Amino acid sequence: MSQNDWMKQGVIYHILIDRFAGFHSIKNWDQPVFLGGTIKGIIEKLPYLLDLGITALWISPFYKTSAYHGYHITDFYQVDPHFGTLEDIKELIRESHKNNLHIIADFVPNHCSKEHPFFKEAQHDKNSIYKDWFSFIDWPDHYLCFLSVRDIPKLNLNNPPTRDHIVNAAKYWLSIGFDGFRLDHVIGPSQEFWEHFTSEIKNLYPNTVLIGEAWMMGIKRHELRTLQVRHKYLKWLSGESSENLLREYIGTLDGLLDFNVQELIKRFIIKKNISENTFRKQLNTHYAQFPEHFLLPAFLDNHDMDRFLFQCGNDKEKLKAAAVVQFSLPQPAIIYYGTETGMTQTTSQWTIPANGDLQTRQPMNWDSPDQNLYLFYKKEIQKKNKK
Question: Is pLDDT above 50 for 284?
């Protein structure tokens, strides 16, 4: 049995901690503030998730952070008190495993918050040991960051102490009991970093599953300097859903989120600009580019794009048709929280100049779920679990 067999046909439920459960009010949901979702909130909703039939959880970054979504990290080794405690994380892992659920954490190796104490010291002291942890173009205020987001400076992972700090953080969380990571923005660090990272992790935790996010949508030419993926200019020219970008990580990571299939399903179900026959042919051609064991989790949407239901004009029959396709694929399926209860939005995130992504990160609709849609999802998940 392959170490990845639990995931190959798995159904993974993707949770943004602050917006899922445990909050007491949904006031100011459209502001980039902590609503109050917690790890304990997830534990309390495990019966709901088990009833739905999922086989794995993917939780957003829970490390100490300066932002509600968790991607602006100020300490890679601590749990943010907004979300709970280390004991809460341990309990979530224990309860998940007790109920035969695997659990993966979002891990963010490429960058940290500008509020991280190491960055603050590096900016204020030219002689600090932490100056080499970052890529200053013109110290102290001109530095490489995540694309153009100055709030999250890019870590210099070619610097051995920085690299070790990040790799050891990953090892620490795996020692707590996580089954794997969804690795954020894998095109940021170099191939050499990923080879080292995977080797170090797999030597200690051989059954860990490492799934990367390689996505170039919306990246501007001047932002390419922040990326270290090989042949980045050619990959950028060939478009965000280039097979070549995904193929870069064969043999290094266990798999990648499948943005290609997400786009194919959208073209087939929403845009209707390809026939079913063409869709199947393109799907087969796509999968033929990858080894059989390489994981390509299929998803309809996530926290960085408009919800699928919104994209199809709130036509739930189209969402159901897309879900049927998604669950029929020979790969893991990811459900973004609330998709199964009919969560949507009123405005595209791309039309809002600042914090538009809050549209797709609304609080879970516990008070107004679409019960019929939920039952549909439950049935489709049962079918997939029997395969």
Answer: yes
